[in-house]
Amino acid sequence: MPDELIELIKGIQSPIGIWEIVIALGFSLIAAIAAYFMYQLFYGSRNIGAGVHRTFIVGGPAITVLLLAIQTSIPLSLGLLGSLSIVRFRTPVKDPAEIGFLMLLIASSICAATSNYLTAGVLFALVFVSLGVHWLTRNRFS
């Protein structure tokens, strides 16, 4: 009975197991929290932008679940692409830093959904070092 219940929860077409899902979501949550803290560290004192950093902690795992769900279905992925292309955000994202952090969140969620954890780790290290150098030299070259 428990095996049948797990198979029902996983779905008929799901090629990944429950532990892979838990690991991907856990990694995505950790990456989203790291992106949130990096945003707060480097841009939190500016009080500019639309405040999209507040959605990072929910957005990262949500994007990962979307990508995990559509991995096995081409029609679902095309439908998701079509539906996202008509979405209009009510709050405009005007700050380039927010757009960069949103891209970081999406990239880390894609890495989590495809089990490319090392790639995401290298990305976060590179972004952290780049932002640190930019922060240290912000008044010297402007």
From TrEMBL:
User: What are the record keywords, sorted?
Assistant: Membrane, Transmembrane, Transmembrane helix
Transmembrane intervals: 21-42, 62-87, 99-115
UniProt entry tagged with the keyword Membrane = yes
**UniProt cross-references to InterPro entries, sorted A to Z:** DUF4956 (IPR032531)
What is one Pfam family matched by this protein? DUF4956
User: Where would one find coiled-coil regions in this protein?
Assistant: none
| Protein name per the record | DUF4956 domain-containing protein
Q: Which organism is it from?
A: marine sediment metagenome
